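user: can you give me the structure for this one chain? tokens are fine.
assistant: on it. calling the predictor now.
[tool input]
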Amino acid sequence: MKNLTRYLLFFSFTLGVSGAWAQTQMSLRESVDAALKNNLTLRESQIQSEGNNAELQRVKSLQYPKMSFGLGQDLRIGRSIDRFTNAYIEEVYSTNGFGFDASVLLFNGFQVRNQIQQNVLLREAGLKNIEATRNLVTINVIQAYLQVLASQELVEVAKQQVETSKAQVNRVTKMVEAGIVGQAEYFLIKSQMANDEFALVTVQNTLKTNRLLLFQLMNQMPTNSITFKPIADEVNIYKLEDGFVNQLYDQALANFPTVKRAELQLQSFNNLLKATKANVMPYISLSASYGAFYSTSNKAENYLQQINGTRNGSLSLNFSVPILGRLQNSPRIAAVKVQQQLTENTLNTAKLQLRQAIEQSFQAFDAASERYKVASEQLSVNEENVKAVESKINAGTVNSVEYVLAKTNYDRARSNLVQAKYEVLLQQKILDFYKDGEWKIN
């Protein structure tokens, strides 16, 4: 029995050590990279971009010549026309031959050229869509990552609060046993410890929820073997001028992918409109053909003689002008113009949303900075107050009610500071993104 107990203890210790060594730490950069690698929406936008590139290559091929070479062999039975004499014959004979055909488009109202330019713009818009999707994934991961870090700090704060409450319960218990304080103050301290324990469970559950969200954004199975590394960024509190929003908006317009995507899509409709109008323009093409054949009905000449004697070719210039196409092109042009107007409205909406987002981030950063400064001062004051009250309660010169009030204010101040710090960090990153047009993650 003793050997079994030793074995179980050794096995448990081994598992604990191996679990500790197996635990890995992910940074913000690694979390973002994992999310970008596994995100299905981003993959969909990449596939759509590949489709845009394939469509561009297809349209480009319309400007190249068409060439074909063919061989044929047939057997004729019964009454038919002799290919040499054009007279009716009634016999079994066979023929074979070859032919070469080529044609090239010379002019069709620059329709192909406009289609190519349209698809070039759509391909670039697809690349901007990938960038916009990448940015959306990145900001979601950054926000979730900072929430996890904030929850981790709040858990540590809550644990320290519980330990402090336990220490005070032990002190008050000794005072009660010594007759210095009454049972009422003992139960008040016990109540405070119960509240702190409840707060600890609450923030621990919040941490689990935030970790789950982050793992889902990375499209990975949640695991306790992964911890998340604190970021090295420091909180920078500075006052933003009123003209900052306009300056930042002008900078963001030049490189913000959502706006650039809408601009490229709008430009593509200009080319689509020209290509649609070209359906009523003249069509000019050049074609050529060359061929020869052999027939067993011609007994006077051998194969090479027949091939040489039946050589024929042609070169033709084709010109056509559409006169009436069932009045279908006018509705097509009208439909393109409607889509163009919708895209222009999409562009204006993207610009409006960008400006509103910058204004909201500006105000959020300003408010978070004020809360951080106030929370820092609040924590400093309440920390000194708790120290003073603890020294008095240890000396027995203050009641527990005053201690509970001081500790509650101190705990609230610590939580407020943690939340304000990560809110400032998030808004700093968002404003830097609008300014630089890209996420800078260490």
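assistant: here you go. The chain has ten helices and eight strands. Strands lie at 24-26, 66-76, 79-81, 88-90, 93-107, 226-228, 283-295, 312-320.
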